[in-house]
Design goal:
2 domains; Solute-binding protein family 3/N-terminal domain-containing protein; 21% strand; 242 residues; globular; 9 helices; D-Maltodextrin-Binding Protein, domain 2; alpha/beta; five-stranded mixed sheet
Length: 242
């Protein structure tokens, strides 16, 4: 056998082994919360976002194939509880039997107001009597003190973040409660930059992901350490988004 034929045979075997290795990798069904700029679909239907890129890279680096879908938060939690998903993020609730990753996702809920309406919100009690819209499950996440405020306010929750911002800019509500990155993303995209007043009345919280298999959570954490040490995690946060 000539050297060239040996090289071709070796190359063919290497490609076959690579294909078999890829086929043998387990595929994880992953659910993320549909919330731009964290995880969302572009106008062309392609999934992207900061959290999407982090989770995709961390788990593929750990040797898994991933099948990622995005959901409203309520549906995300239900599908994970029903074990239709292997991995879900972010997960703000304790679910029996699940293993949680490190708290890798920094969320900062704020109270956003419009500068033209002169609504002053310096602390939680300033929300009493206001017209407020928030994300689904906000009262569960933000606790009893926030729930008490909503009892004395015109308050509603909805999944559509763009509509929340539109309600504020159309003077239908006075305050939008939500994650800062999310509110600024929609306000900047549809109403122009720097048109929100951000009122920091809630603490910043980092959320974990959750997996049914402890090995998946452990592998995710190891990959996150590598992404952090290499500087790739910081690059993902800085990458431009559509």
């Amino acid at each position: 056998m000539t050297g060239f034929r040996q090289w071709l045979l070796g190359l063919g075997l290497a490609l076959v082994c690579q294909a078999l290795s890829a086929e043998s990798q387990p595929t994880l069904k992953i659910g993320l919360h549909y919330s731009a700029p964290w995880a969302y679909a572009t106008e062309e239907g392609k999934l992207t976002g900061i959290e999407y890129r982090i989770v995709q890279q961390a788990l593929t680096d750990a040797g898994y194939r991933v099948d990622i879908e995005v959901y409203t938060h309520k549906r995300l939690v239900k599908k994970f509880r029903d074990k239709d998903l292997d991995f879900a993020s972010p997960m703000a609730f304790d679910i029996e039997g699940a293993t949680y990753t490190e708290r890798y996702l920094p969320f900062h809920d704020v109270a956003a107001t419009h500068p033209d309406y002169h609504v002053h919100v310096n602390e939680l009690k300033d929300l009493f009597g206001k017209k407020i819209v928030a994300y689904q499950g906000a009262t569960d996440v933000l606790g009893q003190a926030f729930t008490a405020v909503t009892d004395s306010a015109y308050y509603m929750e909805m999944a559509d973040r763009k509509r929340q911002i539109d309600l504020l800019f159309n003077n239908r509500v006075e305050v939008v409660v939500g994650e800062r990155y999310v509110l600024e993303y929609y306000a900047n995209k549809y109403h122009g930059k720097d048109k929100l007043v951000i009122n920091d009345i809630f603490p910043q919280v980092s959320y974990p992901g959750a997996a049914w298999d402890p090995a998946v959570a452990e592998a995710f954490n190891r990959s996150m350490d590598k992404l952090r040490q290499s500087g790739e995690l910081q690059r993902i946060f800085r990458q431009p988004l559509p």
